[in-house]
Amino acid sequence: EPVTVEWTKIGSNTLPPHVKQVGNQLVIDSVQPSDAGQYRCTGTTTQDIATDESSLTVEAGTPPRPVVTPPYQSVRENERAVFECIVPGVTGCEIQWHKDQVGGPLPPGVRRYGNKLIIANAKKEHAGNYICSVRTNFGLGESNPGRLDVQREPWRPEADPPVLNVAVGDSARFRCFVRGVPHAEFSWRREDGQPLDNSVDQAGGFLTIQGAQQHHAGRYICSATDPQDPTQGPIDAAPVTLNIKEAAKPLVPQVDPLQQTVDLGQPARFRCWVEGNPQAQIRWVGSGNRPLPSGARDNRGELVFHSVTRNDAGEYICKVYDPQTSRYIDAPPARLDVNQPSHPPEVDPPEQTVLENTPANIRCWVPGNPNARVTWKRRGGSALPHDAHDDGRGNLRIDRAQTIHEGDYECTAVDPRTNQPQVSQPARINVKLAANEIQPEQGSPPRPVASPPVITVPHGETT
Fold first, then answer.
1. Residue 461 belongs to some domain of the structure
2. Is residue 455 part of a domain?
3. Which top-level group of life is the source organism from (predicted)?
4. Are 142 and 163 within one domain?
5. How many H helices and E strands in the chain?
6. What CATH number is associated with residue 49?
7. Which stretch, 317-326, 368-377, 397-406, 446-455, has highest mean pLDDT?
8. To the nearest whole number, what is the mean pLDDT of the chain?
9. Is 34 helix (H, G, I), strand (E, B) or coil?
10. Cα–Cα distance between 423 and 72 in angstroms, integer?
């Protein structure tokens, strides 16, 4: 028969919160003096009940007394400081470190290593008392304080640059700082006692002058204070000097000529210079900052072509280096145009014979000049007959040739660069009348006819 077991503490209606019944066992975590007393186990069945009692005696103890060594040390700023926590008679315990009081957080730059507290670079904010603590079953043990004093070396603010030269309208900036005192506060003033105007800004140790003018020239002094050391008054840095010079004249590169047209194979030359500045650093590049073609030479500001080719045509940029801005200034682009030998338009086929009511086509083009404008006319310049179509791209098309279409046709090509027209050799169309009815010979198959009988096209073209 199953037995139900229940634990109780004599003299109390309930078990303390940290006392638990696990199965038939009574478990007490972290025994305290108040846990001492008698505990009763009651076993119950459906027909019977039985009890038994057990006594718990708790021996009183005292928390450990850790010791911090050394109890006092003094180091110079940025030196190393080490404290050690020793717990007599206790091993394997976990040590906690605190600043000024138990629970006080450790400042940045403090590292724990085993039972030691290490400060690699002591600062003024590290000065104070350090306490270690250990918690055991008998409570929290707190050590004596280990005191740390940090001796600061004498400091003085620095300002740089000591001398600054800027042009009128440029910005000027000085920086003030104190080595080892990152939290120092700064203020700037003129040495002559004149107030700073609205164009002067000071923040974070920087003195910034926007759009410097001649009246900003002079000597400036930075004064620094340590807000964490009220006993130390303001300390001045050595004065810095601002010199204002007149702004340099802007570099204006000039090019001559801005455009020239030469024949294929002839020389060409462009000149670039800066008025009043013979030592200016000048270089030539192609449009879009492309390198110069192989036949071009950059000769101390002159762009020279000994024998121009078709590939040399285009725009070229003269660049002048500005030492004030460390950038290049572009001149207006110089353009080189190259006259190329003109080719008369060609036609294909030069002659064709077609049957009446069949199509006829003639093609016209200019070798090496795909941009040429091409038109068709009757020989002598008269208009095209009815149903003859010029598509504007060099193709003359007659869908159903008639006798009125018979004759010579001329193609006129105009180069868009020169607007000079050239006329092709005539292309002839012959129209053969078709028989009203074709009667094949008895027993013979019909004979098909291809038109035109001959046609010639350039490689890669279609008809």
1. no
2. no
3. Eukaryota
4. no
5. 0, 41
6. 2.60.40.10
7. 397-406
8. 89
9. helix
10. 111
Residues 353, 355, 356, 357, CA torsion sign: negative
Which two tokens mark 125?
Answer: 């904010």
Q: Residue 29 in contact with residue 18, Cβ under 8 Å? A: yes
What are 92's two structure tokens? 């394997």
* Closest by CA position to 309, among listed 294, 298, 297: 294
Distance CA 303, CA 296 (A): 7
Beta strand 240-245 with 163-167: parallel, antiparallel or unpaired? parallel
Tell me the two tokens of residue 248: 């340099």
Smallest Cα–Cα separation from 165: which of 248, 243, 247? 243
Band (457; pLDDT cuts 50, 70, 90): low
Range of the structural domain that residue 119 is part of: 67-151
Share of the chain above pLDDT 90, in %: 63
Give the type of residue at 341: P
CA distances from 134 to 61, 142, 370 (A): 15, 7, 95
Tens digits of residue pLDDT in 24-37:
999 988 788 788 89
Per-residue burial over 247-276, b if 16 or more Cβ lie within 10 Å, else e, is eeeebebebeeeeeebeeeeebbbbbbbee
Cα distances from 451 to residues 364, 376, 409, in angstroms, run: 19, 22, 18
Residues 6+ away with beta carbon under 8 Å from 138: 61, 62, 63, 64
User: What's the structural domain count of the chain?
Assistant: 5
> What is the CA 103 to chain-centroid distance, rounded?
46
Judgement on whether residues 373 and 414 belong to the same structural domain of the protein: yes
Question: Among the listed ranges 107-116, 176-185, 310-319, which one has the minimum average pLDDT value?
Answer: 176-185
Overall average pLDDT of the 148-156 stretch: 86
User: Considering 245, 266, 283, which residue would you say is the last residue of a domain?
Assistant: 245
Whole-angstrom CA distances from 42 to 19, 35, 343 are 17, 19, 124
Residue 460 forms part of a structural domain: no
The pLDDT, as a whole number, for residue 448 is 56
Residues 139 and 188 in one domain: no
Please give the structure tokens belonging to residue 451. Answer: 């038109």
Show the CA angle centred on residue 414, arms to residues 408 and 419, nearest 5°: 145
Of 165, 305, 189, the closest CA to residue 248 belongs to 165
How far apart, in whole angstroms, are the C-alpha atoms of residue 25 and residue 7?
Answer: 8
Q: What is the DSSP letter of 123?
A: -
Q: Which of 385, 377, 389 is nearest to 403 (CA)?
A: 385
